[in-house]
Design a protein that fits this description.
By secondary structure, this protein is mainly α. Helix content is about 60%, strand content about 5%.
Length: about 500
């Protein structure tokens, strides 16, 4: 049953996965591993009540209660329920045998919730238990950096012993790189980033072939699309009623999508979803499940029947409401998801009425920012960011699809430049709301206050809780000598998007 459940997960047949795990759990009711997996699967399907039911049974049976509570907290964090994650970590923190690592993990969660005082207290408590705990020292360095105590943060980050776990060492090097960048020590910053990536690079091998295959397929999409194909899909909207209020907020990661999302999410007529897997895991998979494995995107979209499209539309919005924890109603849903930019043809096929907001930023700044962005859990896409060459190749691949689709499609789209937003946020926001069909509301200009009231999952969670700043514009020039070998590849995009 467990093997069958794993196979169902690989097929993205999530309901069958859960059914196999439930049957296995009934055969072995006290098996904590099965219950943990089942709870995690329910959480990934946005069924938080059943997830908690499984987790509470795990805690009841667990011989090591504190570790189990913390592990459940990690699972809740992974399926992006910060409230549940905090509850379980808090319960672990209240145990007599709590470890400094558990306290440091809870402190990091409080950072994202902008509860900085609570985070600082937990870090101090962790360091009292173990003054050399690397995870707690890393947490203190982050708090020092965010408070502007850069010298203190640097000193801490340089103090880690050589036997520190390599992933924590990688995080420390990323932190050092960010501090050096803020201080104008650009060569030292690049050295620190390269050291972090060298630590992570051995983990990237399993993703190399899949990433290369993806780039080949995206090139095929860009070359095979036709205006006639997109016109037919657009016209099919008459068979897919009622129309839904939906917009994709795409572009490339690090192009200003998080800033624009927070601005728009401050509008009472708009609700945003931040980088979920819902379209891929719910809507698109429904189109391709009956087709032979490996079927390319465009043939799969052409083969889709109207009834399948209707089902995909219903599942998508239902899952979105579960994920958001509230009904969408008549509000405009903005799916903020740069990773869906290359899926624009599929979005048009399922939602012919969709509007497209594409965030643009100087491609050189985008690639540098992706390269500098810390990440600690490698995946197919971010494995490209381990080198500048790979980062540029990824940018060219993703934005190449957008450049191919934009002139061919009938769907309304608006390109929004990050540089224009930081120069004159109100004018850009007025133009964007007009495009979306939403009235002006001055609350959008207080997006930073709004962002402080919610969990922002983006790596830029600290930045979007502050007013707009211009410091990241033109940053690539500080690292021009490192980017020089790859600038020719970016030049067509620099010209096309008006950044000459």
């Amino acid at each position: 049953m467990l093997q069958a459940a794993e196979e169902a997960w690989r097929r993205k047949d999530f309901q069958q996965n859960i059914e196999f795990l439930e049957r296995a759990s009934r055969l072995d009711p006290a098996n904590s591993e099965i219950l943990l997996q089942l709870g995690r699967m329910y959480g990934l399907r946005y069924d938080y009540a059943n997830a908690e039911r499984c987790f509470e049974r795990v805690v009841r049976f667990a011989p090591r209660k504190t570790e189990t509570l913390a592990l459940v907290g990690v699972h809740c964090r992974d399926f992006r329920n910060s409230e549940m994650s905090e509850r379980y970590f808090r319960r672990a923190a209240d145990q007599n045998d709590v470890s400094p690592e558990i306290l440091a993990n809870l402190a990091e969660l409080y950072e994202r919730l902008r509860r900085m005082e609570d985070a600082a207290q937990l870090i101090e408590r962790a360091l009292r238990l173990n003054p050399t705990c690397p995870l707690a020292l890393l947490g203190r360095a982050r708090l020092d950096r965010q408070a502007g105590r850069l010298d203190a943060a640097e000193k801490l980050l340089r103090s880690f012993p050589a036997d520190t776990h390599r992933l924590i060492r990688a995080r420390a090097r990323y932190e050092l790189g960010g501090i050096f960048d803020r201080q104008g020590r650009y060569d030292e910053a690049m050295t620190a980033f390269l050291e972090a990536k060298a630590i992570l690079k051995p983990d990237a091998a399993p993703f190399a072939a899949a990433l290369e295959t993806l780039h080949v397929r995206l090139k095929n999409v860009a070359e095979s699309l036709s205006a006639e194909m997109l016109q037919r899909w657009f016209d099919s909207g008459q068979n897919l009623q009622p129309p839904r209020r939906l917009a994709l907020l795409g572009g490339h990661p690090r192009s200003g999508t998080t800033l624009l999302e927070q601005v728009l999410d401050s509008h009472p007529d708009i609700v945003s979803a931040e980088e979920t897997e819902i379209f891929l895991d719910e809507a698109y998979i429904a189109l391709s499940r009956s087709l032979p494995p490996g079927t390319l995107m465009l043939p799969a979209l052409e083969a889709t029947k109207t009834d399948t499209l209707k089902q995909a539309r219903t599942i998508y919005f239902h899952s979105m409401e579960l994920s958001l924890g509230k009904p969408i109603g008549e509000r405009l849903l903005i799916d903020k998801n740069p990773s869906l930019t290359f899926m624009v043809p599929a979005l048009i096929r399922v939602f012919p009425e969709i509007k497209l907001l594409i965030a643009l930023r100087d491609p050189r700044d985008v690639c540098l920012s992706c390269f500098m962005q810390p990440f600690f859990q490698l995946a197919q896409t971010n494995s490209a960011y381990l080198t500048l060459e790979g980062t540029v190749e990824e940018y060219v691949s993703i934005m190449g699809v957008w450049r191919a689709v934009a002139p061919l499609m009938k769907n309304p789209y608006l390109e929004v430049r990050y540089e224009d937003m930081v120069e004159d946020l109100e004018s850009v926001t007025r133009r964007t709301l007009d495009f979306l069909g939403a009235p002006w509301d001055a609350r959008v200009l207080g997006f930073d206050k709004h962002a402080r009231q919610k969990v922002v999952r983006s790596p830029t969670y600290a930045d979007v809780t502050k007013p707009v700043y211009k410091g990241a514009v033109g940053r690539w020039r500080n690292y021009q000598k490192y980017l020089e070998p790859y600038l020719d590849n970016l030049e067509p995009f620099v010209k096309a998007f008006g950044y000459e």
